[in-house]
Amino acid sequence: MKSKSLAQVTDFDLKLLRIFKTVSECGSFSAAESLLGITRSAISLNMSDLEKRLGMRLCQRGRAGFSLTDEGREILRHSDSMMAAVENFRQQVNQMHKQLRGEFNIGIINNLVTQPQMKITHALDSLRANGPEIRINISMMTAAEIERGLMDGRLHVGALPLTSPVSGLEYRHLYGEKSKLYCSSNHPLFLAEHEPDDEELLQYDAIAPSFRMTAEAIGMHQMLHCTATASDREGIAFLILTGRFMGFLPDHYAAQWVEKSLMRPVAPEKMQFSSNIGIATRNGRRANAILEKFLQSLDL
């Protein structure tokens, strides 16, 4: 590729470098699709644009797989330094202003909006009230995606279930939630007047989450005949509402269907478990006035 000088670094260049960093960490275009939220073809076009801008080949891709060139490794190292410098500059400017301003990136697992305490909602309201120029960016993600986003600096904070902690992150308890086993109004157990025993429960299909669970939740699912999986709680709700499956949902999330008599808990005294939702941040993070204000609003 013909070498050329880079006249200036634009916002577009920063976007392309962030895409390049994510692809490099994932090891392939296909693996980076879900994290970036764009297709492989779009990733390929962005990578080509970056290589043209820089005038050098950054990676090899094809049947042999994905690999960085020597130039690609150098560009990745320099871009990491530049991103850190940009973030540090923005945070230093924030510290100079009474009025908070800048971007605040938060990752949240889905279906927390129905949690009655609404701690995150109230904290975001307080944050916006104290800093009308703050740009709040919410991403709905799996727990694993949130943890990766915190580690690579794309996220400032995440809200996720407290299951198995990741080294390098700090977790703080936010609130607890209780989950029960639910079936829909089309399920044979919906109108049952008796409480099914363990043997009867095994006669019906159930849903196993594909996300991480606590030991207590795993034990509950081992008592069921799980023939389907779901990557999140909304997927579990979809399958329950078919009338073909039973599945565990947080009570606050299932309440919208229970109130309409579209769902009911099954053996609620026995088939239930408690879990904790927490806030995660990266250890050793740079001072960030916006993040600290958000955590204060959560009383953490």
Describe the structure.
- The chain has 300 residues and is α/β, with parallel strands linked by helices.
- The protein has helices spanning 11-26, 29-36, 40-54, 70-96, 119-130, 143-151, 198-201, 215-221, 233-240, 251-258, 289-297; strands at 59-60, 67-68, 101-108, 133-140, 157-161, 169-184, 205-209, 225-230, 247-250, 263-265, 272-282.
- It folds into 3 domains: 11-92, Orthogonal Bundle (Arc Repressor Mutant, subunit A), CATH 1.10.10.10; 98-175 and 277-297, D-Maltodextrin-Binding Protein, domain 2 (3-Layer(aba) Sandwich), CATH 3.40.190; 176-274, 3-Layer(aba) Sandwich (D-Maltodextrin-Binding Protein, domain 2).
- The strands form 3 sheets. Strands 3, 4, 5, 6, 9, 10 and 11 form a 7-stranded mixed sheet that branches.
- Helix 1 (11-26) crosses helix 3, helix 1 packs across helix 4 and helix 5 (119-130) crosses helix 11.
